[in-house]
């Protein structure tokens, strides 16, 4: 992890390095709001699980999460993880779950809510056939791509090894869960088990 000069308008105090934070599991929901069509927290909402590969906690405030379709250049959006109400620090060797929920009104398995970043004309969602990219201090920290995922489906990085920014580039290292609950905030099961 490399330190960077603090941005004068409130950027991150410390920048995560490439591969420090890894996308390890996602739950897709193609609706504009959450899966219920409202912001009330529930187990049905979209989320993205991140893993900290380093030996230090990292404050993710200032990290951008970019979502874009791999087939439709117009289908793209992004949101910034902002310091404030919700948890933005990801523990060493631990997880942080970003959920499509309102700040301060989160289900138990979500640490940070991004529902508030949704505008009617620009829904934040995991597009079907999507690239998810994390960037911080102008550097891409991790990217993962999946080709297709049905609504309310879980996509989990194989839990046989610790999440890794290169390992998660390979689609065959991911698998769909047997249920639509997944393991947000916890290690993933081994694919095929
Ligand atoms: Ca990657
Ligand atoms: Ca998990």
What's the CATH class, please?
A: Mainly Beta
Radius of gyration: 15 Å
**Largest sheet, if any?**
6 strands, mixed
CATH H level, superfamily name: Lamin Tail domain
- Average pLDDT confidence is 82
Quick tags:
single chain, six-stranded mixed beta sheet, 193 residues
Write the layout of secondary structure elements.
Elements: E1 21-27, E2 47-52, E3 58-59, E4 64-69, E5 76-80, E6 89-90, E7 95-99, E8 112-113, E9 130-136, E10 139-146, E11 154-157, E12 174-176
One calcium ion is lined by residues 142-144, 165, 168-169.
Would you mind describing this structure in some detail?
The protein is mainly β and 193 residues long. The protein is 0% helix and 30% strand. It is built from no helices and twelve strands. It has strands at residues 21-27, 47-52, 58-59, 64-69, 76-80, 89-90, 95-99, 112-113, 130-136, 139-146, 154-157, 174-176. The strands form three sheets. Strands 8-7-2-1-11-12 form a six-stranded mixed β-sheet, with no helix packed on it. The chain has a four-stranded antiparallel β-sheet with strand order 5-4-9-10, with no helix packed on it. It has a two-stranded antiparallel sheet with strand order 3-6. The model is unreliable at 30-36 (pLDDT under 50). The structure holds calcium ion (2 copies). Residues 142-144, 165, 168-169 line the site of one calcium ion. One calcium ion binds at residues 142-144, 165, 168-169.
């Amino acid at each position: 992890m490399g330190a960077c000069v603090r941005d004068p308008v409130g950027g991150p105090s410390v920048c995560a390095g490439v591969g420090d934070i890894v996308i390890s599991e996602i739950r897709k929901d193609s609706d504009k709001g959450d899966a219920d069509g409202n912001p009330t927290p529930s187990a049905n909402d979209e989320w993205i699980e991140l893993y900290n590969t380093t030996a230090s906690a990292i404050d993710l405030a200032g990290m951008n999460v970019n979502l874009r379709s791999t087939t439709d250049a117009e289908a793209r959006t992004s949101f910034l993880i902002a310091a404030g109400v919700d948890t933005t620090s990801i523990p060493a060797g631990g997880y942080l779950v970003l959920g499509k929920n309102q700040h301060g009104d989160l289900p138990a398995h979500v640490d940070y809510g991004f529902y508030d970043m949704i505008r009617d004309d620009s829904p934040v969602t995991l597009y079907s056939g999507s690239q998810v990219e994390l960037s911080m201090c102008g550097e891409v920290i991790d990217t993962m791509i999946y080709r297709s995922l049905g609504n309310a489906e879980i996509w989990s990085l194989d839990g046989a090894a610790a999440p890794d920014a290169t390992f998660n580039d390979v689609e065959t290292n991911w698998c769909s869960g047997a249920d639509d609950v997944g393991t947000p905030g916890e290690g993933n099961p081994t694919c095929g088990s």
